[in-house]
């Protein structure tokens, strides 16, 4: 980060910098990165304290990294094996050995940024543990074409729900309803959004899986059924444009009280003990074609800033990522 | 209700009207009311759809009533016995037999408006079932001198928590800390409120029991601990003054996501199966003096509007009510 963004993100906020590798501590790994994630949270941390303090100028943009182990401490993953970790937009990452997740299930590496990674787990735990989706319920997903959203809608259907997408474009909605099994989709930029939404949920909303926060929640609230659940997964509307002080949804307290609603946030780390079991489920769904991850991957470290800007402008369906080099041989331990 | 209030409540919004008793349906009771509740929700229903559609002009203000059965269907409570029900500000109520709760535990009748009534159950279920208060946790209660709040603080202490009150006056805070066992109290009208609050919760807030909603929640959010719970019990700040469209708390989504917070509403009716067990606990606590209900009871139906206005102006500690006649003899079945 060359400059802290105050509003919309721009290429001038980034610079590529070369630095010599520092010495490794005894418990650290050196990893050659193959793939990096590009996600809305990267924008948030550029000027907002989130699950970590905001970046200072000169720090590297944090991201998931998928890479190959070059050096390893004793007891660490084998040299040459593949790991995923929370690293940054960099060619090589130095990682604490406790931080890395070994990749043992053979799958396209891109899937470890999406369905088999943080986003798949976010969608899965958000729907099953926070949303507690039951068969026959109506689930609405906002940011439905995003890295988490496009998986959440499909998973909600696999759980037996009827699923409605909210995105910012008719083109994305067409992809979601024709290719990814959403039952209906609404464009939040349409002048008739509130009415459109209401018409697509004739039986009300049981679970709202929220990736965007902001004004969309106000349109959702009057449609929530008693004992409805709002799963707070992301707040992309607040990430770009200095909107972190944006007011919360009007009428929230009264709606929550009178209809016994639950509005709940979570981090994937809250369910660490269940990651392995959940990943097995997600792998079964994706390898059998019932859960289709979409990825939009650009090439080269220099492509990452523009990929993030495109993402925030709402131009992608699915998970955005950057590929730094081809898949290494002997990938899975 | 003579006139729908658009802002602050005034005596002109009310009138007393005499109407002949209508015929009873076969499953209805006729009850001579002894006590009526005066509660912030009465203001809310005058211009807002809540758990019921808002009142139309000419309707009677809804309230809890405690009364003596004058006529009863076969299988109903005995003539002369005492019941509680959701009725209205009226001398006599006609009630469906399924609606009434028989009062069988001998106690001062005022307690059935507070600790043994709706408010005691609201505080109890809010803390135990929604807030899931654990010993050693820090609980903050807003509207802490109100009908629900003054019980919630005491119950939270009985559950082993450290309890901090928020009210709108230093006088009320003195009552709460010297008579009702609150560990500390903060005045939300003080210029140093945010700092005062922060200093009273050095270990952060685990449970916020919210009776007021609005700006206080914004001061609370940065102090909430990971996995904190916000119990949405009331929204008095939105009841008077046409503020039902007031924006929700700024920064809510980001706080909820990054600290895995839960923001949850409930109705006492959600826990109907547990009313009896909970009432036994509340009776034990109150009869042994560990839980001290405070009541502020005026006399005569005509005193009800002014009592509600006083309540909304924040002049009471404890439960407000109106007594229509002395306790009847042979009160408990």
Short synopsis of the structure:
The structure is a homodimer of 333-residue chains. Chain A is built from 9 helices and 13 strands.
How would you describe the overall organization of this protein?
Two copies of one chain form a homodimer. Chain A folds into two domains: 134 residues, Medium-chain alcohol dehydrogenases, catalytic domain (Quinone Oxidoreductase, Chain A, domain 1), CATH 3.90.180.10; 147 residues, NAD(P)-binding Rossmann-like Domain (Rossmann fold, 3-Layer(aba) Sandwich). Chain A is globular and about 60 Å long. In chain A, α9 links the parallel β12 and β13. Chain A is α/β, with parallel strands linked by helices and 333 residues long. In chain A, the strands form two sheets. In chain A, strands 1, 2, 3, 4, 5, 12 and 13 form a seven-stranded mixed beta sheet that branches. A six-stranded parallel beta sheet of chain A has the order 8-7-6-9-10-11, sandwiched between helices. Chain A has nine helices and 13 strands. The longest helix of chain A has 13 residues. Chain A is 25% helix and 24% strand. Chains A and B meet through α7 and β11 of A and α7 and β11 of B.
